[in-house]
Amino acid sequence: MLTHVWGLMAHPNREWKQIKQERETITHLYAHHVLLLAAIPVICSYIGTTQVGWSLGGGTTIKLSYLDALGAGIVFYLVILAAVYIVGKTIRYSAKRFPKTPSQSQCIIFAGYVATPMFLSGIVAVYPIIWLCLLAGVIGLCYTAYLLYLGIPSFLDISEKEGFVVSSTTLAVGVLVLEGLLGMTVLLWGYGERIILSLLG
After folding, report:
1. Under DSSP, is residue 102 helix (H, G, I), strand (E, B) or coil?
2. Distance from C-alpha of 184 to C-alpha of 86, rounded to nearest angstrom
3. Which end of the chain has fewer CB atoms within 10 angstroms, the N or the C?
4. What single-letter DSSP state applies at residue 129?
5. How far apart are CA 38 and CA 84, in angstroms?
6. Separation CA 18–CA 113 (nearest Å)
7. Taking the CA of residue 72 as centre, how many other CA atoms within 13 Å lie in the half-sphere pointing to its CB?
C-alpha cells in the first residue's frame, strides 16, 4: 500500500502500469488502501477539533468534546468511503459510451487510487484553520486531476481522446463531491456539537 502511495506521488506513469498489472479486487483495494488512507483526514480532524479547535477568524475557536468528535468522525469516514464508490460509478457511467467499456470493478479501483492526494491533504486538519484546509484541498484536487488525466487512458484501456472525456466528467463530479465533503467537514467538525444537540432535541 505505501509503495503505491509513494509511486503515485513520485512517478505516477510507472505506478499506474504496476497497479494495473496487479489486477486487484475492490475488497483488496478498500482493505489495503482506501480504509487506511481515508482514516488520515478523520484522525487528523479528530485531533485538531478536540485539541486545537476550528479557527473561524475574529478570535473565534470551536472545540468539540471527545464524544462529539468521535460521532462526527464516524460519519465523515463513511462519507469518504462512499465518495470513492460514487466517483468510481461516475467513471463507469462516463465510459459506457465507448466500445471498450471498463468494468465497474476497474473504475472503482481506479477511483480509490486517484483519490490518494485528497486523502493525504487531510493531514492539515491537525491544525484546522479554514483557509489552510481549503488550500490543502485545492492542492490535493489539482494533483488528483493530474493523476486522473494521466492514468485513465492506460488503466481503463481507452484512447486518450476518450480518456479526456471521462476525466473531464469525473473531475466535474469530483469537484462537487469535494465541495460537499468540505462543507460537511466544516459542519460536522466545526458545529458538530450544535448539530448533534439539535438532532437530539
Report:
1. coil
2. 16
3. C
4. B
5. 10
6. 12
7. 32
- For residue 187, the tally of other CB atoms under 10 A from its CB is 13
* Whole-prediction pTM: 0.81
What span, in angstroms and rounded, lies between the C-alpha atoms of 51 and 126?
9
3-state secondary structure 49-98: HHHHCEECCCCCEECCCHHHHHHHHHHHHHHHHHHHHHHHHHHHHHHCCC
What are phi and psi for residue 96, nearest 5 degrees?
-65, -25
pLDDT value for 196? 47
CA distance linking residue 36 with residue 13, whole number of Å: 23
- pLDDT tens, position by position, 117-131: 989 998 998 988 778
- Over range 79-101, report the average pLDDT: 82
* CA end-to-end distance (rounded Å), the chain: 43
DSSP tag of 101:
P
Average pLDDT, the chain: 80
For residue 188, give the DSSP letter: I
